[in-house]
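Something for you to look into today, if you have time. Could you write out one complete protein record for me, on any chain you like? Leave the record below and I will have a look.
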Amino acid sequence: MISITTKTLQDLEFQTVLTQIEAYATTELGKITISQICPFTNENDLKKSLAQTNEYLASFENENVIPSHYFESISEEIKRLSIENYFLEIESFRKIKTIAEASNDLIKFFEKFSEYYPVNYAESSQITYTKVIPEAINAVINRFGEIKDDASMELGIIRRQLKSIQGRINQSFIAALSHFNNLGFLDDIKETVIDNRRVLAVTAMHRKKVKGSLLGNSKTGSIAYIEPQGTLQLTRELQDLQYKEREEVVKILKNLTAFIRDYQPLLEHYQEYLTLADTIAAKANYAKELNAILPEIVAKRELYIRDAYHPLLYLTNKTKGTKTFSQTIELDVNNRIIVISGPNAGGKSITLKTIGLLQVMLQSGILIPVHERSKMCLFDRILTDIGDNQSIENHLSTYSYRLKNMNRFLKKCNDKTLFLIDEFGTGSDPELGGALAESFLEVFYEREAFGVITTHYANLKILADELPEMTNANMMFDNRTLEPTYQLALGQPGSSFTFEVAQKNGIPYSLINKAQKKVERGKVRFDKTIAKLQKERSKLEKTTKTLSSEETKKRLETEKLEKTNARIQEKLESYQQLYDSNQKIISIGERIDKLAENYFNNRQKKQLIAEFLKLIEVENSKRIKLTKKEKVVKKKKAAVVKKEVEEKVAVIRVKKNEEKKKAALQPPKLKHLLKVGDRVRLIDGKAVGDLEKIEKKKAFVNYGFFTSECKLEQLELVQRMK
């Protein structure tokens, strides 16, 4: 059974991820549900949740937009429905209607697009689809949130009476207003409204002259507000009718509440379903922001995360416009434990947290920012020991706490465990702490657990080099600038660059040299050897990257050429099809023309019809029957090709016309130089004559009976003079 502790979630800052997801939720219940997300205990439930989120994420890329799932909580309304004789207010019915319609919309949508969203369809198909609830509410309440006049027969009668009495009151008041105004009893404002009742603004000196009910005075006492006697009785009738209206409205709401009460379980299902939809949508939107995906989940013990990003760091850097470095790491049965070493601030801890947080997110049904070719298995336990956990309350030192934590690891660690330990063995004497850490690591190794640790201890690096299913790794450093590159390199331990970093930060060389002499010579030599190897590896990495870049460039060029070739081939095929189609049409046209000619000669209709039908049958036998959709596609494709050809032909025609115009403007070149005595003729004529003389560009041609004058360039040679 999968069990991941709260401590692990705290160490990996999982709650911060949930807080970020909450921001994408549109409902309060959705936010509450997201805040309570934790790793799944059942693998099938987990895979279902991941698939639902992945389908929602896919909907952002297509035209089948999932309908809105927004709703307001009806938890209180559901509780009150259980109370006998209790009736809901109009606002409550509005919320119930919204939640019912939103659920129905989602149910119908997923039913329609079940092939695109099979997992979400399976979830929605468990919810009952019915229009009864919104129809019942719509029959009573209009879109403005008011009880309809026809909600009941009695209410319709009462409201008609109300309109009638209000009309009579207005008439009576207007008559009184006109009468007393003519008498000059009213103030300049003439009238006002008190307690939703129209009253006359009577001057104080005339108030006894106006019969009616005194409802108030102005602050100065100069005006008395009087309801005329004529409207008093009508007002009482109005109040009676208003009371009856309220009573009838309550009766209608009670009846509607009683009707809705029968659907209380369904409303609970609606709310649960929409809360789930809001949660899924929020996770999908978060995934979109992260460029997250669903990696392949494998049954065998294998963890291969490629181009992985720490979600919190990625979003923070994205906001700042700063680059976030990705990591690639692989664990399998042949390489179960990785020991990461290297200088501080090189990215060891963030690499560790990235692995842990992504694993926890995945096992909580949240998509993760990794390459699509990543593979991940599921772990029953994820054990973490990250950061300085010194406890003041429990009077525990860092080392005591870590020992207590290691004891917990020993009890729970097995072949289905992923352990993550930052700065393994620190907090005590380096030699003694290192030895104890080595012993712990050997136990974890023997139990076939998967894990990643960070350390500076040389003995742990040596152990990782000796054991076959354990690997050293280091965070790469630029050997010139001593700046971290934040890239993880497997295969070799990393140097701490203790003295080099100290020198870079301005510590005097004399002091560094003194420190070096105090350290065991063997350890310094060992660290130098590691540093040297790391530098060589850095150079090799750069060369590999250059070669890889060139290879990628050539591959892309090859792919580009192949795509171009394919496009050209496709166009040639399309043009050939168009040519064949046109040739076929020409052929049919020629045969029809021949039939028409035969009919013109013999006037035999029967023969014409028979031959024409034969022609049609022959052509139809060659046709392939297509569906309506296939016909549309074929027609569109042919139209595109035809348009393309016409555009290209038009360009060629324009070019040729321009060439013709240019040629016309230039004087034609004589093929032969004409001389006096040559037999010549006009280029566009048939008469041949003798060229008698040439003056400038004019020629005189003798045709026997007469001599003609023309331009020299208009003549062409017929016979050269002997």
